[in-house]
Amino acid sequence: QVQLVASGGGLVQAGGSLRLSCVVSRRTFLIAAMGWFRQAPGKEREFVAEIRWNGDTTYYADSVKGRFTISKDNAKNTMYLQMNNLKLEDTAVYYCAAKQGAQYVAWGQGTQVTVSS
To answer: What is the mean pLDDT of residues 23-31?
Structure first.
């Protein structure tokens, strides 16, 4: 079973930046892609970004295009989410996840990102 540990959240002012990290361990050979999701209070979890584990193809939600960048370092089994020009509406718990085949099957514990005015 793939295990994920996310970190890097915190409190930042609007317009600021944060970088999230997600370390992957165990059975990484099963991973097809990695992604970031987020869940704001009172809202459903939503997709943020995805990157192929073998390759560099990326996908982004429209709400974060041009501001967030997903990347990875396979040698370190680590995925990142660089978040720039943060907005109040980016406040949420951010989760990293691993995809096997066409489904996300493993989730990290979540890291809180709070953007203040």
So the answer is: 85
Radius of gyration of the chain (CA): 13
C-alpha distances in angstroms, 90 versus 1, 3, 104?
A: 30, 25, 22
Instruction: Write the DSSP symbol of residue 75.
Output: G
Structure tokens at 20: 């999230």
Token reading at 59: 């996908």
The phi, psi pair for 7, rounded to 5°, reads -155, 170
C-beta of residue 54 within 8 angstroms of C-beta of residue 33: no
Looking at per-residue confidence, does 46 or 55 come out higher? 46
| Six-digit token string for 116 | 């203040």
Amino acid of residue 35: G
Supply the pLDDT for residue 106: 94
